[in-house]
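dumping this here so i dont lose it
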């Protein structure tokens, strides 16, 4: 049987404890959780009437948006680098 390389860690997000399982380090999972927590608190501060379900969805939408913008920026920089090398 293959060795189990999954790492289990408990994290706190927006006052709730979650058990995460993954192949990244515990420190990485803690960082991800803290970033999600921070974004949820930021969005809640701007929209205090949101229930936690809507807050979670808006947090996911915002974080995916940020991720896509970063990917577009990396792609743009890679294209500029190829032109400079070309």
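and the seq i came up w/
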């Amino acid at each position: 049987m293959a060795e189990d390389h999954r790492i289990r860690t408990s994290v706190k997000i927006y006052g709730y404890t979650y058990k995460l399982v993954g192949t990244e380090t515990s420190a990485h999972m803690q960082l991800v959780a803290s970033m999600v927590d921070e974004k949820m608190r930021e969005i809640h501060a701007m929209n205090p009437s949101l229930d936690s379900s809507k807050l979670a969805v808006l947090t996911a939408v915002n974080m995916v948006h940020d991720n896509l913008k970063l990917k577009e920026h990396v792609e743009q920089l890679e294209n500029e680098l190829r032109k400079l090398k070309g």
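The longest strand covers residues 7-13.
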